[in-house]
């Protein structure tokens, strides 16, 4: 483990942590390319509905607004968790992380409801090019949130056992970057898939 620098936030206090955080930013660059490709495919295929329904016919504003509110709130609470971590409060860090994960689970429950709704109205993944890319894009984001929930649970267990060290702080900060990234992707989904599709 590298030498600890007490003049910077705990997550940046070792050279190893700084390198890992930089590496994770690089990973997020690859994730941006993944979602960028999905969005480009969506914009190409959005009007290819065949005999299937259009976005205007299947999108419901209430669950979409609920998902957006839940996820944006979770972005705020993970920010509070990192702030608490920097203040050295293990209890507050775990509390806000727990709230974040509960909000993530609530988001997924609404998304599952949404997928069931799509199936009931005949918008399955094989119905048209539009429904295929729609469900692939939403599903990819949903899988990322699901992964984040398991990651967050394991991270909370580590913090509970080991406390707030440079190692656990570095992991928590990287997790917060991941969670914020998912929120940013959702804003694009909300704006360019749902809102545009309802017009």
From TrEMBL:
Compartments where found: Cell membrane
Span of domain Heme-copper oxidase subunit III family profile: 22-198
Membrane spanning residue stretches: 21-44, 64-85, 92-110, 172-195
Family label: Belongs to the cytochrome c oxidase subunit 3 family.
Keywords recorded for this protein, A-Z: Cell membrane, Membrane, Oxidoreductase, Transmembrane, Transmembrane helix
Keyword Ubl conjugation: no
Membrane topology: Multi-pass membrane protein
InterPro entries: Cyt_c/ubiquinol_Oxase_su3, Cyt_c_oxidase-like_su3, Cyt_c_oxidase_su3-like_sf, Cyt_c_oxidase_su3_a-hlx, Ubiquinol_oxase_su3_dom
Stated name of the protein: Cytochrome (Ubi)quinol oxidase subunit III
UniProt main location, coarse: membrane
Record Pfam families: COX3
Coiled-coil spans in chain: none
């Amino acid at each position: 483990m590298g030498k600890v620098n007490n003049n910077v936030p705990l997550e940046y206090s070792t050279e190893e942590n700084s390198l890992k955080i930089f590496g994770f930013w690089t990973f997020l660059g690859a994730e941006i390319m993944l979602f960028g490709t999905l969005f480009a495919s969506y914009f190409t295929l959005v009007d290819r509905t065949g005999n299937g329904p259009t976005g205007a016919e299947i999108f419901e504003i209430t669950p979409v607004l609920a998902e957006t509110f839940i996820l944006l709130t979770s972005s705020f609470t993970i920010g509070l968790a990192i702030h608490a971590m920097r203040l050295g409060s293990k209890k507050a860090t775990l509390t806000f992380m727990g709230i974040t994960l509960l909000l993530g689970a609530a988001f997924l429950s609404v998304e599952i409801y949404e997928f069931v709704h799509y199936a009931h109205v005949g918008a399955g993944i094989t119905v048209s090019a539009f429904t295929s890319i729609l469900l692939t894009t939403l599903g990819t984001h949903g899988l990322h949130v699901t992964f984040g929930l398991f990651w967050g649970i394991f991270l909370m267990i580590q913090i509970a056992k080991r406390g707030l060290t440079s190692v656990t702080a570095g992991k928590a900060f990287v997790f917060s970057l991941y969670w914020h990234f998912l929120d940013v992707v959702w804003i694009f989904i909300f704006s360019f898939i749902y809102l545009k599709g309802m017009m």
